[in-house]
């Protein structure tokens, strides 16, 4: 239990630092920004109570907001994402007993289910984030391109991050 807590605390700190120091400064073609810190919410154990999931989602969003000067945008988006996390996971994996490990991963849910889960979570986050950021639908074309481009970029980076975390946690590739 303590080992799991410490590993998630380290993941929290590393993802927030990486987001605010590196990924917030990457804008591909002025449209796509990688939002890799949402991996923390995606990788929380399924057995985490909803209250804790919402609190942790809010805290990681607030942490990124404080360092990014985004006035609660990430806190709002992360809280909504945290609230939708379990229903989205149930879309692709109806029973928690089907998982070999309570932490969603390629190994515990299967490659297809995990890929759909991560894509849906990423798309949900980007949809909320860029809709609120645009403060309306005045330029729906640009907003749509940003949502799509950031979803694709973040999704690919999250799959790569999941592979790295999986590689490091197992000690060898499986």
Q: Flag low-confidence runs.
A: none
Q: How would you sum up the major sheet? A: none
What would the average pLDDT be, to the nearest integer?
87
Shape label: globular
Order of helices and strands: HHHHHHH
With helices defined by DSSP (H or I, 4 residues minimum), what is the helix count?
7
Q: Give the total of beta strands.
A: 0
In helices, the fraction of residues equals: over 70%
Overview of this structure, please?
With 174 residues, the chain is mostly helical. It is 70% helix and 0% strand. The chain has helices at residues 2-21, 39-42, 50-68, 73-92, 106-109, 111-134, 140-170.
SSE layout and pairing:
Layout: H1 2-21, H2 39-42, H3 50-68, H4 73-92, H5 106-109, H6 111-134, H7 140-170
Can you describe this structure in just a few lines?
The chain is mainly α and 174 residues long. It contains 7 helices and no strands.
Task: Please tag this protein with its features.
174 residues
């Amino acid at each position: 239990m303590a080992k799991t807590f410490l590993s998630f605390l380290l993941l929290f700190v590393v993802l927030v630092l990486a987001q605010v120091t590196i990924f917030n400064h990457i804008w591909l073609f002025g449209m796509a920004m990688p939002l890799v810190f949402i991996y923390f919410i995606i990788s929380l154990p399924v057995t985490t109570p909803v209250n804790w999931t919402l609190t942790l989602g809010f805290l990681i969003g607030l942490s990124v907001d404080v360092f990014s000067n985004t006035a609660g945008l990430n806190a709002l988006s992360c809280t909504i994402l945290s609230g939708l996390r379990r229903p989205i996971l149930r879309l692709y994996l109806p029973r928690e007993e089907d998982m070999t490990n309570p932490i969603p991963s390629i190994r515990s849910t299967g490659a297809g289910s995990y890929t759909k889960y991560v894509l849906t979570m990423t798309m949900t986050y980007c949809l909320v984030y860029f809709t609120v950021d645009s403060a309306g639908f005045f330029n729906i074309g640009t907003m749509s391109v940003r949502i799509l481009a950031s979803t694709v970029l973040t999704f690919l980076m999250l799959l790569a991050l999941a592979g790295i975390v999986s590689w490091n946690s197992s000690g060898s590739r499986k």
